[in-house]
Amino acid sequence: MNLAIEVKNLEKTFMLHNQNSVKIPVLSGISMSINFGECVVLNGHSGSGKSTLLRSLYANYKPDDGQIIIYLSDRKIDLLTASAREIIELRKTTIGWVSQFLRVIPRVSALDIVMQPLLDLGIDSYIAKDKAAYLLNKLNVPKRLWSLAPSTFSGGEQQRVNIARGFAVDYPILLLDEPTASLDNQNANVVIDLIEEAKKRGSAIVGIFHDVTTRDKVASRLFSME
Ligand SMILES: Nc1ncnc2c1ncn2[C@@H]1O[C@H](COP(=O)(O)OP(=O)(O)OP(=O)(O)O)[C@@H](O)[C@H]1O
């Protein structure tokens, strides 16, 4: 097995400073390993800490204790001690985040939004454009919308632009935060295909899927948060 991520004894307690410093313990002694080529789905009741763990794997949240080791080809990086510069680099080259919510950037076209992560890696613009067009097409975003900024798009169209952007780069590690939520069946199946393709390419995937049918289709195994 080829390790991609190793989580060791993760601890996270939220402190509500403006509410009498109430403490909310969320992650306690979480340990897990994720290999390249598998999709691990976080499973547990609402409030069990799935989002907190997923955000920690993207270094959005900093756990209080433990380790999150990211295995690169030539070295390992612990997200709890990584520098801001290392985290920015990891997000550019190694760890992708796909959620249902699009950060709309005013006046930037849908095609440019999807191409940008590829351009950031120094990939030629004609190759980036081809990949973006392939994904927008696959996700049924009508071609007449590609040159427009998505601020006026429907919720579903914006979501599909965001998913296309999330899959533009073939990241070695992909974090999926309910990417199929509120998609119709046809488009949810496209996303399931994209996940399967990423798995076959050898990406290590961690995701949250509330829909049991989707979860069972994509999961190599479940990780229980109970
Ligand atoms: N930024 C935050 N500040 C304070 N408390 C938080 C914060 N984020 C999450 N929590 C708390 O941590 C607990 C776990 O939340 P989290 O969103 O990780 O659960 P979840 O399993 O993803 O839930 P759901 O399935 O409902 O999305 C909750 O009690 C929540 O109130």
Automatic annotation (TrEMBL):
InterPro entries on file: AAA+_ATPase (IPR003593), ABC_transporter-like_ATP-bd (IPR003439), ABC_transporter-like_CS (IPR017871), CP_lyase_PhnL (IPR012701), P-loop_NTPase (IPR027417)
| Pfam family, any one | ABC_tran
Gene3D superfamilies annotated for this entry? P-loop containing nucleotide triphosphate hydrolases
Residue ranges annotated as coiled coil are: none
Has keyword Nucleotide-binding?
yes
Task: Report a single Gene Ontology molecular function.
Answer: lyase activity
Q: Which domain of life is it from?
A: Bacteria
Q: Which NCBIfam families match?
A: CP_lyasePhnL (TIGR02324)
Protein known as: Phosphonate C-P lyase system protein PhnL
Native species of this protein?
Thorsellia kenyensis
Q: What is the lineage of its organism?
A: Bacteria, Pseudomonadati, Pseudomonadota, Gammaproteobacteria, Enterobacterales
